[in-house]
Write a structure and sequence with these properties.
Blueprint lengths: L3 H13 L4 H6 L23 H10 L10 E5 L5 E3 L11 E4 L5 E8 L2 E5 L5 E5 L3 E6 L14 E6 L2 E6 L7 E6 L4 E7 L8 E3 L6 E10 L2 E8 L7 E6 L2 E7 L11 E6 L16 H18 L4 E4 L9 H11 L3 E8 L9 E4 L6 H12 L5 E5 L14 E8 L3 H8 L1 H22 L1
Parallel strand pairs: 8-12, 17-18, 17-19, 19-22, 20-21
Antiparallel strand pairs: 1-4, 1-7, 2-3, 4-5, 5-6, 8-9, 9-16, 10-11, 11-14, 13-14, 15-16, 20-22
Helix pairs in contact: 1-3, 4-8, 6-8
Length: about 425
């Protein structure tokens, strides 16, 4: 059942005191219970006892108040929105990370999430701790007031920067195409009033930008890129202007010139998987990470960053925030897998965005040369460290600690060196294709 703490308070206090049954019918919410069914005059709705108010709220799917949606602003570290309220182990499918201070229209409450209205045809969900509620929608700007302004494309430091003038911070999502190499950003609640787009020659990786009114209130931004590889981008707001910063490709080719980050899963109190024999994922993930770091240094890669170099627990959110500041060219996350079925074994690689598929595929191909069983190339993976768009990234589940055969490999130092070598070779193969 939906959370009535929010819907009950707002529905009863803000709506039922004002609404008649005809109001509710007009908005299409009440289907099971209304004052007619209760043998009451609609004009006596004001006198409904709390019992009937709650009954109406429940029968309407806890959405009676939607005619008076509330405006909130995103807040906190790494706020994100989701496509659904699905309850799975790694959370519902993430639509995007989103900047703070973004205006969201809250229309419902489902356990620990708010349902938000993005546009006429789009909705999403957001964890409640990422929203600060402010005013009823009637007291704020409506979608009819949201008109896009001019665009400006230039370059700064190692990024091409596209800014788009808007009158407010509005929600958005992005996704990546590979062939051709394109970034697409949808901004919700916006009507195009863009009459010029300035593109300066300083831009190095962005070939072209153009707009599309995808729906009556969904504004699409197309960013065509040079080359085969998307090297990363970030989306935020500069005051009220939407800013999309697209990272330049490395100036020099080859793995020696990459800044590679390595994430060793778990640590400290977070043991991760523990085998029947007591082998802990956190211990071996760090050993594999250090072996990879050592090999990269031997191969001439000077810039290598470990998210943890010792047995400490670092929250995934803190890892992502730190990676935002160090700005790697590539992230490799190392984990060990487990299953309730001891016969399940093998290696797998994981990515979320299409721009990270190729590097994940090449690493998997190389790892399979070690004679490991193939568990698969897993796309759209909903792990937090796979979700950033700022850099290509791949998560490697090296083998299964729950499988006796795989566990013996994991305990073998020779296998640590072989794994590091195969990940290195996978990165080299990827670079030969995209550079």
């Amino acid at each position: 059942m939906k959370d009535l703490a929010f819907s009950g308070a707002i529905a009863i206090d803000q709506t039922l005191k004002k609404a008649t049954t005809s109001d509710m019918r007009r908005y299409g919410y009440c289907k099971l219970v209304n004052t007619k069914q209760l043998n009451m005059n609609p004009m006596k709705t004001y006198l409904l006892p709390i019992f009937y108010a709650m009954l109406i709220t429940i029968s309407c799917g806890a959405q009676v108040y939607a005619q008076q949606a509330w405006v909130g602003r995103t807040t906190g570290d790494l706020p994100y929105i989701e496509y659904s309220d699905g309850m799975v182990r790694l959370g519902a499918d993430k639509m995007t990370f989103i900047d703070t201070g973004v205006r969201v229209m809250v229309v419902d409450s489902v356990e620990n999430r708010y349902k938000i209205k993005l546009s006429k045809n789009w909705q999403a969900y957001i964890p409640k701790h990422f929203v600060s509620l402010s005013t009823p929608l009637s007291d704020s700007v409506t979608s009819d007031d949201i008109l896009s302004g001019p665009w400006h494309l230039s370059a700064k430091d190692n990024y091409d920067v596209l800014t788009i003038s808007l009158p407010d911070r509005l929600p958005y999502r992005s996704f990546q195409l590979v062939e051709p190499n394109i970034i697409i950003v949808d901004v919700f609640g916006v009507i195009s009033n863009t009459t010029w787009i300035t593109q300066l020659k300083k831009a190095r990786i962005v070939k072209n930008v153009y707009r599309e009114q995808l729906e009556s209130d969904v504004y699409r931004i197309h960013i065509d890129l040079e080359g085969k590889q998307n090297w990363g981008y970030s989306i935020d707001y500069d005051n009220k202007a939407l800013r999309i910063s697209v990272k330049h490709a490395p100036t020099k080719k080859g793995i020696k010139n990459l800044f590679i980050a390595i994430d060793a899963g778990h640590g400290g109190n977070s043991k991760g998987v523990v085998s029947p024999n007591g082998s802990e994922e956190k211990v071996y993930a760090l050993r594999f990470a250090k072996e990879l770091q050592t090999l990269l240094h031997k191969k001439g890669v000077k810039n290598v960053y470990l998210t943890r170099a010792e047995d400490i627990d670092i929250a995934t959110t803190d890892r992502v925030l730190k990676l935002r500041t160090v700005k790697p060219d590539l992230l490799i996350s190392l984990h060990l897998n487990a299953s309730s079925k001891t016969e399940v074994k093998g290696v797998s690689t994981y990515y979320h965005h299409n721009g990270s598929r190729a590097v994940s595929k090449y690493i998997l191909d190389e790892m399979l040369d070690l004679g490991l069983n193939e568990f698969g190339l897993i796309g759209n993976f909903n792990f937090l460290l796979n979700s950033p768009t700022e850099y290509p990234n791949s998560l490697v589940e090296i083998a299964f600690l729950s499988n006796p055969e795989d566990e013996q490999r994991i305990l073998d130092e020779k296998f640590h060196k072989q794994t590091a070598d195969k990940i290195y070779k996978g990165i080299v193969r990827w670079l030969k294709e995209v550079q």
